[in-house]
Write a structure and sequence with these properties.
This protein has 18 helices and seven strands. By secondary structure, the protein is an alpha/beta fold. Strand 3 and strand 4 form a beta hairpin.
């Protein structure tokens, strides 16, 4: 399987839409859900060659990517590549905040393989990108960047990652770095054929999970700080959604996927990704993606009972603020909040 060629794809084709029926000038979360429900199968089942899955962190991006990885169309990148989203990555090198040589140095010495003390392990793309491929792709990037910076970034991404799809005889690739939706304005320009899924999770659970991951050694250290961290991340993602263009980003609730209207959430996710149902994907979803594995309402075990009403009130205020500001994923968050009885 060859990677997608350079070039521009019409917006409605990118989003799996057609003018006049499935295309929307405004795309709230509820608009997208309604459009996916009413669209004809022929309009929907056109999977993109590239699907980005992102979120705040601790929101369930890996769960969603694993479900879709069980379809015959998609191959998931094993872990976050990050060179196209993080500070010093594609957005910075294209804006001039980082030079191409410094970017390649970071690619070779940080994103390729680095030790993370909090995880006590090495992370990076070294697990699936051989050093020889890294060297060849880096040299090609430096040769091309001065004259064609965006094309150079696009080529580097596919030179490094597309062999995963080829080796698995897949026609599509899933990449799941957390910040892909926040950086959708840049990535959407580089990859006009791509779609984006924003995985959202109850902010109290995401905050509690992040605090636990940090082991109280780094920010956020408390549930209060965790909620502040979560709101900032959501708002940054919302800005990315606004810059991505209509119909390209689908907000998907992890809570609804595992503990709400599971069938509807699964169907909408699958239809947005352009996929017909397949037994392997459905079996994985039904057997592995369950509420007991998602740690729903884990925040309650992290917060003393006497303080839970205080945390709940703070979260309600955050949702109210975001609703007033028109943040795109609030409908999903409110449905979960109301279903749990607040």
């Amino acid at each position: 399987m060859k990677p997608p060629a350079d070039g521009t794809v019409l917006r409605f084709a990118v989003a799996g839409l057609r003018p006049g029926h499935y295309e929307m000038s405004t795309t709230t979360a509820l608009d997208i859900e309604a459009a996916l429900e009413r669209a004809d199968d022929a309009e929907v089942f056109r999977p993109p060659p590239l699907l980005f899955v992102g979120g705040t962190g601790r929101s369930g991006t890996h769960v969603v990517a694993k479900i879709l990885n069980n379809h015959s169309h998609f191959r998931k990148v094993p872990n976050e590549a990050r060179f196209h989203t993080d500070a010093g990555g594609f957005p910075d090198v294209l804006s001039g905040r980082t030079g191409p040589e410094l970017f390649i140095w970071r690619l070779r010495h940080h994103w390729y393989r680095n030790f993370e003390p909090a995880r006590r392990s090495f992370r990076g793309i070294h697990r699936y990108v051989p050093r020889r491929r890294l060297d060849a792709a880096s040299e090609a990037f430096l040769r091309r960047f001065e004259d064609e910076p965006e094309a150079a970034c696009r080529q580097l991404f596919f030179d490094l990652l597309w062999p995963l799809a080829t080796e698995s005889a897949k026609a599509g690739l899933i990449e799941q770095s957390c910040d892909v939706v926040a950086e959708a304005p840049t990535l959407g320009r580089l990859f006009p054929e791509a779609k984006f899924i924003h995985v959202v999770r109850d902010g109290r659970d995401a905050a509690a999970s992040r605090v636990g991951q940090a082991r109280w050694l780094t920010y956020p250290r408390s549930i209060k700080q965790g909620l502040e961290w979560w709101e900032r991340r959501i708002r940054r993602i919302d800005a990315g959604v606004a810059g991505a263009g209509p119909g390209r980003v689908f907000p998907l609730s992890l809570d609804e996927l595992v503990g709400g209207d599971r069938r509807r959430s699964y169907r909408l996710m699958r239809r947005f990704a352009g996929l017909r149902n397949e037994e392997a994907m459905l079996d994985y979803f039904q057997s592995r993606v369950r509420d007991r594995n998602a740690h729903l309402e884990r925040w309650r075990s992290s917060v003393p009972e006497r303080r839970q009403a205080e945390v709940d009130a703070a979260y309600a205020e955050i949702l109210e603020r975001m609703e007033a500001d028109g943040v795109h994923c609030v409908p999903q968050l409110q449905r979960t909040y109301e279903r749990r009885g607040r």
